[in-house]
Design a protein that fits this description.
By secondary structure, this protein is an all-beta fold. The chain is built from no helices and eleven strands. It is globular. It starts with a strand and ends in a 5-residue tail after the last strand.
Amino acid sequence: AESVGSGQWRLSNHTWGSFSRMQFVYHTTLTQPVFQIFSGPWLFQSCDVRCAVGICMSVLYNGVADIRRCSLGGTGRDFSVDMSQPAVAWVACDVGGNGN
Protein backbone atom coordinates (compact mmCIF):
# COMPACT_ATOMS: atom_id res chain seq x y z
CA ALA A 1 0.00 0.00 0.00
CA GLU A 2 1.23 3.46 -0.85
CA SER A 3 -1.03 5.23 1.66
CA VAL A 4 -2.83 4.29 4.86
CA GLY A 5 -6.26 5.51 5.93
CA SER A 6 -7.88 4.92 9.30
CA GLY A 7 -11.29 5.35 10.84
CA GLN A 8 -14.65 5.24 9.09
CA TRP A 9 -15.38 6.50 5.58
CA ARG A 10 -18.85 7.57 4.40
CA LEU A 11 -19.20 7.91 0.63
CA SER A 12 -22.46 9.87 0.45
CA ASN A 13 -25.06 10.51 -2.24
CA HIS A 14 -23.92 12.05 -5.53
CA THR A 15 -20.27 11.08 -5.04
CA TRP A 16 -17.96 8.83 -7.03
CA GLY A 17 -14.26 8.19 -7.36
CA SER A 18 -11.51 5.66 -6.80
CA PHE A 19 -8.96 4.38 -4.33
CA SER A 20 -5.82 2.62 -5.53
CA ARG A 21 -3.03 0.86 -3.60
CA MET A 22 -4.29 1.99 -0.19
CA GLN A 23 -4.64 0.26 3.16
CA PHE A 24 -7.56 1.04 5.47
CA VAL A 25 -7.67 -0.15 9.09
CA TYR A 26 -10.48 0.35 11.61
CA HIS A 27 -10.94 -1.17 15.07
CA THR A 28 -14.33 -1.10 16.77
CA THR A 29 -16.21 -3.02 19.43
CA LEU A 30 -19.46 -2.65 17.44
CA THR A 31 -20.44 -3.98 14.03
CA GLN A 32 -19.72 -0.68 12.28
CA PRO A 33 -18.40 -0.40 8.70
CA VAL A 34 -15.07 0.95 7.54
CA PHE A 35 -16.83 2.11 4.34
CA GLN A 36 -20.49 3.09 3.98
CA ILE A 37 -21.14 3.47 0.25
CA PHE A 38 -24.40 5.22 -0.71
CA SER A 39 -23.67 6.17 -4.33
CA GLY A 40 -21.02 5.72 -6.94
CA PRO A 41 -19.53 4.19 -8.83
CA TRP A 42 -16.55 3.78 -6.46
CA LEU A 43 -13.54 1.81 -7.67
CA PHE A 44 -11.26 0.05 -5.19
CA GLN A 45 -8.15 -1.27 -6.90
CA SER A 46 -5.34 -3.17 -5.14
CA CYS A 47 -6.54 -2.02 -1.71
CA ASP A 48 -6.39 -3.72 1.67
CA VAL A 49 -9.43 -3.04 3.89
CA ARG A 50 -9.13 -4.41 7.45
CA CYS A 51 -11.60 -4.19 10.30
CA ALA A 52 -11.60 -5.67 13.78
CA VAL A 53 -15.10 -6.80 14.80
CA GLY A 54 -16.96 -4.54 12.31
CA ILE A 55 -17.82 -4.60 8.60
CA CYS A 56 -15.25 -3.85 5.91
CA MET A 57 -17.70 -2.45 3.33
CA SER A 58 -21.40 -1.73 3.48
CA VAL A 59 -22.91 -0.94 0.05
CA LEU A 60 -26.42 0.48 0.50
CA TYR A 61 -29.31 2.02 -1.42
CA ASN A 62 -27.86 3.20 -4.76
CA GLY A 63 -24.27 2.45 -3.79
CA VAL A 64 -21.98 0.92 -6.41
CA ALA A 65 -18.59 -0.57 -5.53
CA ASP A 66 -16.22 -2.13 -8.07
CA ILE A 67 -13.66 -4.10 -6.05
CA ARG A 68 -10.60 -5.28 -8.01
CA ARG A 69 -7.56 -7.17 -6.63
CA CYS A 70 -8.41 -6.16 -3.05
CA SER A 71 -8.23 -7.91 0.32
CA LEU A 72 -11.05 -7.45 2.83
CA GLY A 73 -11.06 -9.01 6.28
CA GLY A 74 -9.96 -8.90 9.89
CA THR A 75 -6.94 -7.14 11.30
CA GLY A 76 -5.34 -10.22 12.85
CA ARG A 77 -3.45 -10.12 16.13
CA ASP A 78 -2.06 -6.60 15.54
CA PHE A 79 -5.32 -4.91 16.57
CA SER A 80 -6.87 -7.62 18.74
CA VAL A 81 -8.38 -6.57 22.07
CA ASP A 82 -7.52 -10.01 23.44
CA MET A 83 -3.98 -10.67 22.19
CA SER A 84 -4.56 -14.44 22.35
CA GLN A 85 -7.27 -14.18 19.68
CA PRO A 86 -6.99 -12.59 16.23
CA ALA A 87 -9.39 -9.74 15.50
CA VAL A 88 -11.75 -10.88 12.77
CA ALA A 89 -14.15 -8.84 10.67
CA TRP A 90 -17.82 -9.51 11.37
CA VAL A 91 -18.64 -9.14 7.64
CA ALA A 92 -16.27 -8.48 4.72
CA CYS A 93 -18.83 -6.94 2.32
CA ASP A 94 -22.52 -6.27 3.08
CA VAL A 95 -24.77 -5.30 0.15
CA GLY A 96 -28.34 -4.18 0.84
CA GLY A 97 -31.20 -2.31 -0.77
CA ASN A 98 -30.34 -1.46 -4.39
CA GLY A 99 -26.58 -1.58 -3.78
CA ASN A 100 -24.28 -3.37 -6.19
